[in-house]
Design brief:
Number of strands: 0
Radius of gyration: 17 Å
Shape: globular
Oligomer: single chain
Distance between the termini: 26 Å
Helix content: 55-70%
Order of helices and strands: HHHHHH
Number of helices: 6
Length: 138
């Protein structure tokens, strides 16, 4: 059941990205172009995500535990280190240059293009390098 619901959650997420237009890299780049032809669509998608997350967390954490796991897995680290800052900067630069965030990139696989292939390959290489450099599961 855990695998089925994980698949359904991923499917729902990717459908939301597609319906919201976030699989179109030009829409994302248009949002980042604040001094040019600015496209505010991403604000509404982000707002919907924040509201959904805010409500969802409150409903889920009222439960004694998750439906398909022993305990809730919630991040506990709160420190800001060099690895986090460099990772965030590289992520932001990649997002701005390509117009793809990892979720929309994977949701866009059905309409594969060479820039999308380059982004997906660079993400895989980045994950591999992060594991090699840090010596842990990144």
């Amino acid at each position: 059941m855990k695998l089925i619901f994980s698949y359904l959650a991923g499917l729902l997420f990717s459908l939301g990205l597609a319906i919201g237009g976030m699989t179109d890299p030009h829409r994302v780049q248009g949002f980042l172009d604040v001094f040019g032809n600015w496209d505010p669509t991403l604000i509404f998608v982000m707002g919907g995500a924040v509201i959904t997350t805010f409500i969802g967390y409150r409903l889920v954490f009222r439960r004694q535990g998750p439906l398909f796991a022993e305990t809730f897995i919630v991040p506990t680290r709160r420190d800001i280190d060099t690895r986090l800052l460099i990772g965030a900067a590289v992520f932001g630069i990649g997002w701005g240059l390509s117009g793809y965030c990892p979720g929309p990139a994977f949701a866009s696989i059905s309409g594969i293009t060479w820039p999308l292939v380059a982004l997906l390959l660079s993400m895989v290489v980045g994950w591999w390098l992060a594991r090699r450099v840090s010596g842990s599961a990144a």
